[in-house]
Amino acid sequence: MGKVLNIAPVSRIEGHAKIAIHLDDQGNVQDSFLHIQSLRGFEKFIEGRPAEEVPRIVNRICGICPWMHHLASNKAVDGAFGVTPTETGYKLREMCQVMAHINDKILHFFFLAAPDFVLGPDADYAVRNVIGVVKAAPELATQVVKMRQLGQMMLDKFAGKAIHPIAGVVGGFAKPMIEEERQELLAGTRTLLDFACFALDFAINNVFAKYLDVISDLGVIKTGFLGTVDRADGSLRLYDGKQRLMKPDGSYVDFEGKDYTQYLGEHVEPWGYSKMPYAKSWNEGFDMNLAAPKGIYRANTLARINVCDKISTPKAQAALEAFRASFGRPAQQTLLYHYARLIELVYACERTIELLEWEGITDPKVRAKVEPKAGRGVGIVEAPRGTLIHDYTTDDNGCIVKANLIVGTTHNIAPMNMSVKQAATTLIKNGVYNQGLLNQVEMAVRAYDP
Amino acid sequence: MGVTTALEWLGSCSGCEIAILNIGEALVPIITEALDIVHAPVLMDHKYFGQCGEGVTLTIPEAVVGIVTGGVSNHEHLEVLEEMRKKCKVLIALGTCATHGGIPALMNGQDRQQSWEEVYQTVTTDPGAQIPNVEVPAPLDRVYACDEKVKIDMQLPGCPPNPELIAEVIVSLLENRAPVLPGKSVCDTCPTRREGKGDVEKVKRFITNATFKPGEPIDQMRCLLEQGYLCMGPVTAAGCAKRGAPACISARVPCRGCFGPVRKDGNQLLDMMNALASNGIDYKSVVDRRSLLRFSGAHGMLRPVKKRADKED
């Protein structure tokens, strides 16, 4: 009987998980698991609530991406009540959502992932963290802290709350933007765009180039991908569009959000609370076998960068072309999630500026007329961690009678398990393991930003 | 070296951790000089079972200050909280989940077992799925606030908590003085114009926007309760105001009580019903009254509705 290594908690991620690596008598990996440790039951305790209240309850699903839940929920309630938001209301929501992506990506790359690259995967745990980064690279770190705070406070000031927002409402937005706010947000976002371009260059030259071997190896698996693209031209979209489900060979189908149940299923294993979405429409079932996976696709940055035909903003498009020239389409290397994340950071800044430059953004008509009623609505946005689906059914009084949620991170639970197994099997041989190797196993998880 | 500090999250969403980061540039000297962080899953890689995962007992290093976010809803949360209490001299409960149960304690208002079964029976879930029970922490009977399970030395609610107040709590500890925290209600920090309740007899759902002129200062807008909206400002602890007005009010949206009751053991549902009734407003016009306890459902406040009992009114 071999032994079990319990890497708990998995750290520098945004949720609660543990990795268990089971070794056989020879000290080789027999099996491994990424256990998701908690369940809260949002789908059930929003039942009975007036639907217009739900966007300010479900944002508590995630304190890092509360805007995503807040807005997917608002879109679902719009659908259930049969309301179309005003154009300005729609664009104010999109602006907040895309701006929230900016902060999220700065946080993930620099605060959570960077310690592995700046200090090295084998550095002692006491220094391999953001505090260590501040000490090792104080100028860069100060700039990063300033930029994240700038983005976060812009959103907080305009929308009242950056964390657990309330400004999105069924039918649109709770307040219009005035010219003074528009100018201030534009100035701030232009600063963030400069920083985003710097961050991408910095990472390409100082991180990805240096760790090319690790990138081509660590946690690499072959899967399909899910993301959202523009209905007309197939370009990357975060707030709204059609869903695109790509097979590992690069072929794909597009579908409308309301039809998601025909394409996606959720598998349950007894050893983790999170469900594992899979591509039901491929009709091959669910299997995490590394050599012959079945039904497995990935979501989040790399997936979106793989499924889109192009990006509608110039700087991000140039970055996408360079990325594809190096890694092809679809790219499967797990650590490329970081690279894709920074391309999206540039897009998010450019898109925010586009929205702020739109002449109608300060129009006072921000909310359409709303009447609570019975119906069903499916609201989908691209959260930083993947395609986020809120599906609500309401009664005559406009209260929730049924809800189904597929949360961004969950799409990647099965792929993360596979990447952990791939990494652990490759790194741990004949009973030889240490902190640095085990941290590399965690790095395969961290790339997915769970 | 700074003051040793351990951070832990229980049943949390990490919004409190983001609120800590939102202290901004002032946080840099706090975490690099004033504090010596010895354990914090969100930021650093200290592990419970040794760095190679070979240990058998969950262990957190000793620290002077401990900060816990999230409520207690399963056996792992409880084990971590008890270890934090054992190892930390001063234990702080941060955020409304830790102090009053928060949104996850809405589960206390229903049958947990049945709800969990139904979570694994949704339209997209494979038929026949069961509640996972292998190598995952078993649930407790309900969601608890931290002080229901261990002694807590200081409570700072908020969903999220206000970064300025988090900094004040940390700095006051370092300076060995009591923190300066607001003790009143959200209304006491709200600059909106009050003219008397007028002819409001029922509360409106928030399906129309408040009446205000775009860009006008908040003190020119009439109180949202007086505009006829349900606003929980009167029964909610102050602390959210950042730029001269409560956070939600600054977005022209009514308060829903996310800092918990004004008095630590107050009941936001009863207090709000009293506030409405005493102003001649029909409290039955509030749809889904139990959700007024959406942030403070621990401490036995929210319980499953008894089957076959009469309606709550």
Brief descriptors of the model:
heterodimer; A: alpha+beta; Cytochrome-c3 Hydrogenase, chain B; 4-stranded mixed β-sheet; 3-stranded antiparallel β-sheet; 16% strand; B: 313 residues; alpha/beta; Rossmann fold; 2 domains; 8 helices; 7 strands; 22% helix
What does it look like?
The complex is a heterodimer of chains A (450) and B (313). In chain A, 43% of the residues lie in helices and 16% in strands. By secondary structure, chain A is an alpha+beta fold. Chain A has a domain at 84-220 and 334-369: Orthogonal Bundle (Cytochrome-c3 Hydrogenase, chain B), CATH 1.10.645. The two termini of chain A are 32 Å apart. In chain A, 64% of the residues are buried. Helix content of chain B is 22%, strand content 12%. Chain B is built from eight helices and seven strands, in the order E-H-H-E-E-E-H-E-H-H-E-E-H-H-H. In chain B, the strands form two sheets. In chain B, strands 2-1-3-5-7 form a five-stranded parallel sheet, sandwiched between helices. Chain B starts with a strand and ends in a 35-residue tail after the last helix. Classes of the chains: A alpha+beta (450), B alpha/beta (313). The interface between A and B is large, with 110 and 89 residues.
